[in-house]
UniProtKB/TrEMBL annotation:
Signal peptide: none
Membrane topology: Multi-pass membrane protein
Pfam families associated with the record: CorA
Task of the protein: Mediates influx of magnesium ions. Alternates between open and closed states. Activated by low cytoplasmic Mg(2+) levels. Inactive when cytoplasmic Mg(2+) levels are high.
Keywords on record: Cell membrane, Ion transport, Magnesium, Membrane, Transmembrane, Transmembrane helix, Transport
Organism, scientific name: Actinoplanes italicus
Keyword hit for Hydrolase: no
Family indicated by similarity: Belongs to the CorA metal ion transporter (MIT) (TC 1.A.35) family.
Protein localization: Cell membrane
Protein name: Magnesium transporter
Amino acid sequence: MLGRERGDRRRRLLPLPDLPGAVKSFIGTITRPDVPGPAPRNGNPDAVVDCAVYAGGLRHGGSAQVPYPEAARLARRRRGAFVWLGLHEPDLATMRPVAEVFGLHELLVDQAVSGGGHRPGVETLGEVTRLVLRTARYVEHDKLTATSEVVETGDVTVLIGPWFAITVRHGPVGPLWEVRKELQSRPEVLRQGPWSVAYAVGSRMVDSYLDVAEHVEHDLERIEEETFASERTSDFAHIYQLKREMVEFKRAVLPLAEPLSRLLESRGLPVSLRPYLEDVRGRLARAVDRVGSFDDLLNSILQARLAQVSVDQNHDMRKIAAWAAIAAVPTVIAGIFGMNFDVMPGTGEPWGFYASVGTMLLIGGGLYHRLKKSGWL
């Protein structure tokens, strides 16, 4: 029985004779063992936020979303048209078909999938320029505490090709539907092609930096008022928390200056868009200056608070020393009369007790008045 099974197995493994292809395929399905195939690629269905074709400064097809393979075919057929594909936190299974349609380098795919914490920068791989920007949003709070989140950040990657622009956003901050809506209302800018998307996204990010800076300035004003108020707490951990949040904000704003300068020097940038990007760079410079001033102001507030704590501690020590001096008077007098010598003035007299207590009160009261007048109490 066992030998027959081995013989059958050997016969199944022999090469097939010259038979028609359909017969070979049928026999192969019978004799092939059940080997699990590769798992189907299930991309993130919510990763594609919007996709549209733009030509002549207008969106074609109305507000309806076009599948990006079809949009790519339409953009290639029409001169001056381009595709804007918006993605939010795509996974590798989502980016691979996108890369096949738009011809993206594998490094761009890996960087787009990884997301989170990218430093602002610009680089060019082949015909595709990659621009990375950090998003920032002010988190509303009633009171600044040691655990308050003040600034929430994310990142946006803009891939600019000859006939397409792909925006990849990571994090809940900085949705781009408002950017798309605003750009669609400016056909003279949208007519400049894919680079208009890079300008619009960069402009919105810089505007968000200025908005965050304005709100943070209000927080700093409140902290400054608390610092120099007559009634203040000794806890200033919330100041350190705001300083930590400012470090995160600085990492989003300050490094963007160099990529913007390099972008303005890029040969692929249309000449008509340069004035717009110059305006973005000017607004970014204002944001950088404000963030830098925040850091200096926070350091000044911290130094003032530390000086106040030192003064308060010295004041407390003076009070302790003053009360210790007052308490030393009755302690000394009581100690002298408590030595139980046989011969001591006033020990056997009925007025001795009253005299000692009166002396304690007189000297203690005099010390209290003197120390109170000098500011020690």
